[in-house]
Amino acid sequence: MKIATWNVNSAKARLPLIVDWLRAVSPDVALFQEIKCETAAFPAAAFEELGYHVAAVGQKAYNGVALLSKTPPVDVLERLPGEPEDAQARYVEATVGRFRIASLYLPNGNPAPGDKYDYKLRWMDRLAGHVRGLLEREVPFVLGGDYNVIPEPRDVYDPAGWANDALFRRETRARFRALLNLGLTDAYRALHDDDEAYTFWDYQAGCWPRNLGLRIDHFLLAPQAADRLVGCAIDRRPRGAEKASDHTPVVLELDGTP
């Protein structure tokens, strides 16, 4: 089973690139973040023509997530539990085959400290609470998406320069480690020990050609999913395309049928 995650930075603006990539790679499930449109405006028809069922949660101009699956997603959850007044479109979760799969767009949190950073930390605490519930029920789950978290110094081109950024602050990394300590597996790091394994390069200052990147797009796996881990790779090719997103896809492979 092949599952991809990609912060597409506007589904409509990148639609030709996304469709071409899906045709070439053909993941069983594709998780998108920053679709940047209301749910009704998401270009679902283009993906349905490729054989995908679509569960999207959007909002005007900002945020937004989607889950595309070749088999119908079941029991769709459109908000992360824990803060009913939170109207930001950042989470969609569904059962696909034997797995519970989520596409998440964790808040950026800048400037930090401040209200936006407080929201980021609350969101991470809510995610941890939701994960505990899934683990208690022994649900085999996959959490994929843009976490806006740089887990370790080797995951950023300039650790000192990013020390006070919301993506790399001590409190952020501590909460990410707390998720792992619940029993989750960082799929990429379970298989790779390399440096400069980036998934995001800013549009500014020649970051892409100079490989000044960050690893902030992750798959975290429940033990039942980690037991089936076969591969996890960063596909850098889309970042080099014309009018590319500033993120590139990460592709997870699990043993077994969808």
Describe what you observe in this structure.
The protein is of the alpha+beta class and 258 residues long. It has helices spanning 15-25, 44-48, 115-136, 170-181, 187-191, 223-226, and strands at residues 2-7, 29-33, 53-57, 65-69, 74-77, 91-96, 99-105, 141-146, 185-186, 200-201, 213-214, 217-221, 229-234, 250-254. The chain has one domain (2-254): 4-Layer Sandwich (Deoxyribonuclease I, Chain A). It is built from six helices and 14 strands. A hairpin with a 2-residue loop joins strand 6 (91-96) and strand 7. It is globular, with a radius of gyration of 17 Å. The N and C termini lie close together (5 Å).
Summarize the structure.
The chain is an alpha+beta fold and 258 residues long.
Question: Strands, helices and their partners?
Answer:
Elements: E1 2-7, H1 15-25, E2 29-33, H2 44-48, E3 53-57, E4 65-69, E5 74-77, E6 91-96, E7 99-105, H3 115-136, E8 141-146, H4 170-181, E9 185-186, H5 187-191, E10 200-201, E11 213-214, E12 217-221, H6 223-226, E13 229-234, E14 250-254
Parallel strand pairs: 1-2, 7-8
Antiparallel strand pairs: 1-14, 2-4, 3-4, 5-6, 6-7, 8-12, 9-12, 10-11, 13-14
Helix pairs in contact: 3-4
